[in-house]
Amino acid sequence: xxxxxxxxxxxxxxxxxxxxxxxxxxxxxxxxxxxxxxxxxxxxxxxxxxxxxxxxxxxxxxxxxxxxxxxxxxxxxxxxxxxxxxxxxxxxxxxxxxxxxxxxxxxxxxxxxxxxxxxxxxxxxxxxxxxxxxxxxx
Amino acid sequence: xxxxxxxxxxxxxxxxxxxxxxxxxxxxxxxxxxxxxxxxxxxxxxxxxxxxxxxxxxxxxxxxxxxxxxxxxxxxxxxx
Lengths: 138, 80
Prior knowledge:
By secondary structure, chain A is of the alpha+beta class. Chain A has helices spanning 13-20, 53-70, 101-118, and strands at 2-7, 27-33, 38-39, 42-51, 73-81, 83-86, 92-98, 121-127, 130-133. Chain A has a single domain (2-130), classed as Alpha-Beta Complex (Aldehyde Oxidoreductase, domain 3).
C-alpha cells in the first residue's frame, strides 16, 4: 500500500504512522523533515513551498514503487506540505513499514534522498533582508 | 504553433507569470523550446540547471512538442 499526499494543511505524523501499521511488520521507519532556523548562519524567518502538484504526485509514486521493487517493504506513506511554514514546522513525512528493520531504514533513506533530487517541489527561504529559492543558482 | 509553458519556483519570477505562451515552429522539440526561452529570458541561463517536463514527465531535448501538451519549466528542485 502506497499513500501519497500533497497538502497545504499541517501534516499529521501519527496518521502517517497509523497508515503503514501492519500485523506482518516488525518495524516502522519514519523520516520527518523540519524547518531549520539557520542557513549558513543566517536567520530564516520562514519557508515557502510550491509544488507542480500533478507531476510531484506522480514522481513521488514512482519513488515509492521503486522502493517496493528494491526492498521487501509492506506499506509507505509520503506526505508533503506546501505553502508558508514557520521554523519547527514539518514539510515532509515519510513512513515505511517492513517485516524487518533494515528494509524499512534503507527504503526510507532512499525515498527522502530521491525526493530531494527528482520531485518538482521548490522552497524559498525568507530572511530578514531578502529571499532565496533554494538550489536555484550554482 | 503556440506552446503554453507553466513556470514554477524561480522560473515563475523570471517569466513574471505562472504561465506564458511561446511561438514555435510546428513539430518543434524541447531543445528548441529551451533555446527560444533562453533568448527571451536570459536569466534562465544563470540557473544551476533546469529541465522541461511534458505532460507531467521529464522530457529530453529531442522530444517533439504539440500545442495540446502541458509543458513546464522545472528549475532545480528543493523539496523535502
